[in-house]
Specification:
The chain is mainly α. The protein has three helices and two strands. The protein has a domain of 53 residues.
Length: 87
């Protein structure tokens, strides 16, 4: 039985990165289709995030979210600035 627990107070060395990625992907898949960002917009948002100084190991240091999950929500905004993801 896996006893590792994902939490905000864990160190990266204590986390199973593969398991975290799998969990985030499952959470994205659980977003209803009508509330999910279309694939092209999702990739565009992630490209913006990859250039941001607030991105550390897949996590936004402004809000603590996993950026892949936040970017997947159609009506979500960037916590750094609401205009960051607008066209």
């Amino acid at each position: 039985m896996d006893t590792k627990k994902i939490c905000y107070k864990c160190l990266l060395e204590d986390l199973d990165e593969g398991k975290i990625l799998k969990t985030v992907k499952e959470m994205i898949d659980a977003i209803p289709e009508d509330k999910r960002t279309d694939p092209e917009e999702y990739r565009r948002r992630l490209e913006i995030c990859k250039k941001c100084d607030s991105l550390i190991s897949g996590t936004c240091i402004k809000c603590g979210c996993y950026v892949e999950l936040r970017a997947a929500g159609k009506n979500r905004t960037c916590p750094n600035t609401k205009d960051m993801w607008h066209l």
